[in-house]
Amino acid sequence: MSADDLLPPVQAPAANFIIQLFLIPMLIVSMIVALWLLFGYLSRQNENPADLVADIEQLNHASWQKALTLAQLLRDSQNSELRQDTELAGRLAALLEKQIEEGRHDNERNQLREYLCRSLGRFEVDTGCEALALAASHEEHADDLNTRRAALQALAELTEAVDPETIAGHPSVLDALQKGTEEYSENAEEKRDREILRSAATFTLGLLPKEVTNTRLAELTHDPSLDVGYNAAIGLARQGDERCIEILAEMLDPPEDALEDSMIEPIKRQTEQQRAANEASLKEWKKTHLVTNALRATTKLYGEYPQLDISKLKTAIEKLSTDEEQPNLLRIRADEVLRVLNQ
Question: What percentage of the chain has pLDDT greater than the value 70?
Answer without folding.
Answer: 81
